[in-house]
Design a protein that fits this description.
alpha/beta; Rossmann fold; 2 domains; six-stranded parallel sheet; 13% strand; binds uridine-5'-diphosphate-glucuronic acid
Length: 467
C-alpha cells in the first residue's frame, strides 16, 4: 500500500484543481487553496468552474472530504508536508512570464513553515525560478534544512486533463535533494507502482498496472527546461506543418497525405501534425514567448522560436484571405462560424485563434452567427452580442441563410454534421474548414464548395446544360 501524504495545492485553475482531485483519487489528503473566496465557495458547493471530462465525478467523490477547499494558505502550509504551487504565470509585456503570484505565494508559505516542507513548483516557469523561490523563503528567515524546492512540471492538456494526469507519458521530478525526491516518489507511487490501475472505478486511460508511467528524476533546472522545451517543440511541430500546408496549397498537393507520410516515420511521429488556423490556448503562445525571452536573457540565440510565432500569426491571416477568395468581398456577408474555443472539447477561449478570426471578420464588415458547444458564455465577454454578432443554439441554426460556413474549432460534434440538412439550411453551400474535419469528396458529393487547409479547393461539378 502506498503511503498517504498531506498535500496542499495552491491555485484552483486548470492545473491546480485537476491536480488536487487527482491526488485525492490517488489516495492522498488534499487542501486546495485559492485566494478568490467566490471560487472556493463554488468548489465547496460542487461547481467545477471549468468544463473538463471526469472532473465533476471526482469533485463529487472527494469534495469537502479528501479534498478541502479554503482561502487560508497559512493553515494549509502548517497542515501539509508537500505544497504544490499551481498559480498563474501570465505573460508580461516583454514576453517574460510574470512570476509575481509565485513570489507572493512563496513568501506567504515562508511565514507559516512549522516543520520540514517540500515546496513544489507546478506552474510553468522559466529556468532559475526554483532558485528564486528558495531565496525568497530564506529571506523570510526560514532555515535551509526546513524546506526543499522541487520542480514537477505538469503536461496535462485541457479537455483531457484528468486522464492525462492519471495516465501520464512521464512524471518529471526535478529535485536537488534526496529527501525531497523521496516525498515526490511517495506522492506518485500509486501511479508508478501500478497500484492505482488495479483499483476499482479508475479513470480510464492508456496505462495499466503492467504498464505504469516512468518517473524521471532530474535537477531542478533541467525539469524547468523540460517543460518549456516540450511546449515550444510541440508549437514548432504545429507551425512546421502549417508552413508545409501553405506549400501544399501552392503546389496543389494534399497536406493530409504529406503529414501521414511524415508521421509514419517513427522518429517524427503522427501527433501534432494537424494543420489549421494556428495554435492558441493559455500555454503555447505564452510559453514560446517566455522560452524565447529566457534564451535571450541568457545570451542564447533561439530565433527559431520567433519564426514559430511568426508562422502562427500568419496562419490566421491566410485563413482570412481564404475566406475573401471564396466570397470576393466581405462587407455585408452573413457568415456562420462553428467554434470559438481554442480547440475542441474545452470551454477555454484564451488566445483562441477562432476569436481572433471572428474579430477580423467583424472588422471587415461581416455579420457573424456563431455556435460553440461550451465556449459561448465566455466568448460573449470578448465578442459581445450585437446585430453583427449573434450566438446560435446549434450548428444548423448558425448556418441558416449563411453566405458561407467557417469551421474554426475541432469539436468532435462538428465532424459529424448532417451534410444534407446543412446544405438545405444555407443560402450558399460554401464551407471553409480551418480544421480539415471533412473529406473534400464527401463535401462535393453533398453539393458544397469546400475549402480547407493545405488541400486543393473542391467544387461541385455542374451538370452540363443541354442546349
Ligand atoms: C498544451 C500541451 O499539449 C500540454 O502538454 C501542456 O501541459 C499544456 O499545453 C500546458 O502547458 O499547460 P493545451 O494548451 O491544453 O496543452 O492544448 P493542446 O491540445 O496542446 O493544443 C494547443 C493548440 O494547438 C490548440 O489551439 C490546438 O488546436 C493546436 N493544435 C494542436 C494544432 O493546431 N495542431 C495539432 O496538431 C495539435
Amino acid at each position: 500500500m502506498s503511503k498517504k501524504i498531506q498535500i496542499a495545492v495552491v491555485g484552483s485553475g486548470y492545473v491546480g484543481l485537476v491536480a488536487a482531485v487527482c491526488f485525492a483519487e490517488m489516495g492522498h489528503d488534499v487542501i486546495c487553496v485559492d485566494n478568490d473566496e467566490r471560487k472556493v465557495l463554488a468548489l465547496q458547493g460542487g461547481d467545477t468552474l471549468i468544463h473538463e471530462d471526469h472532473l465533476p465525478e471526482l469533485l463529487n467523490r472527494y469534495r469537502n472530504q479528501r479534498v478541502r477547499f479554503m482561502t487560508d494558505l497559512a493553515e494549509a502550509t502548517r497542515e501539509c508536508e508537500a505544497i504544490f504551487i499551481a498559480v498563474g504565470t501570465p505573460q508580461s509585456e516583454t514576453g517574460d512570464a510574470d512570476l509575481s503570484y509565485v513570489e507572493a505565494v512563496a513568501s506567504e508559505i515562508a511565514r507559516s513553515i512549522n516543520g520540514y516542507k517540500v515546496i513544489v513548483e507546478k506552474s510553468t516557469v522559466p529556468v532559475y525560478t526554483n532558485e528564486w523561490i528558495r531565496r525568497v523563503i530564506e529571506r523570510n528567515g526560514v532555515e535551509r534544512e526546513m524546506f526543499d524546492v522541487v520542480s514537477n512540471p505538469e503536461f496535462l492538456r485541457e479537455g483531457t486533463a484528468v486522464s492525462d494526469f492519471l495516465h501520464p507519458d512521464r512524471i518529471v521530478v526535478g529535485a536537488d535533494s534526496e529527501r525531497a525526491a523521496a516525498v515526490l516518489n511517495a506522492i506518485y507511487a500509486p501511479l508508478t507502482s501500478g497500484e492505482y490501475y488495479d483499483t476499482e472505478n479508475i479513470i480510464p486511460g492508456m496505462l495499466s498496472s503492467e504498464n505504469p508511467p516512468p518517473i524521471l528524476l532530474t535537477s531542478t533546472k533541467s525539469a524547468e527546461i523540460i517543460k518549456h522545451a516540450s511546449n515550444a517543440f510541440l508549437a514548432m511541430k504545429i507551425s512546421f506543418i502549417n508552413a508545409v500546408s501553405n506549400l501544399c496549397e501552392a503546389a496543389d498537393a494534399n497536406v493530409e497525405q504529406v503529414a501521414r507520410g511524415m508521421g509514419l516515420d517513427s522518429r517524427i511521429g503522427p501527433k501534432f501534425l494537424r494543420p489549421g488556423i494556428g495554435y492558441g490556448g493559455s500555454c503555447f503562445p505564452k510559453d514560446v514567448a517566455a522560452f524565447r525571452s529566457v534564451a535571450e536573457q541568457m545570451g542564447v540565440d533561439f530565433s527559431l522560436l520567433s519564426e514559430v510565432e511568426k508562422i502562427n500569426t500568419e496562419q490566421k491571416k491566410r485563413f482570412l484571405s481564404k475566406v475573401r477568395s471564396a466570397l470576393w468581398t466581405l462587407r455585408g456577408k452573413k457568415l456562420a462560424v462553428l467554434g470559438l474555443a481554442f480547440k475542441g472539447e474545452t470551454d477555454d477561449i484564451r488566445e483562441s485563434p477562432a476569436i481572433d478570426l471572428v474579430e477580423m471578420l467583424l472588422g471587415e464588415g461581416c455579420s457573424v452567427t456563431a455556435y460553440d458547444p461550451a465556449a459561448m458564455e465566455r466568448a460573449k465577454a470578448e465578442l459581445p452580442e450585437s446585430k453583427q454578432m449573434i450566438y446560435a443554439t446549434d450548428s444548423y441554426a448558425a448556418a441558416r441563410d449563411a453566405d458561407a460556413l467557417l469551421i474554426l474549432t475541432d469539436w468532435r460534434e462538428f465532424a459529424g454534421l448532417d451534410l444534407h440538412k446543412l446544405n438545405a439550411t444555407m443560402r450558399y453551400p460554401i464551407v471553409i474548414d480551418g480544421r480539415n474535419l471533412y473529406d473534400p469528396h464527401a463535401m462535393v458529393e453533398h453539393g458544397f464548395t469546400y475549402m480547407s487547409v493545405g488541400r486543393p479547393a473542391a467544387h461541385p461539378v455542374r451538370e452540363a446544360v443541354a442546349v
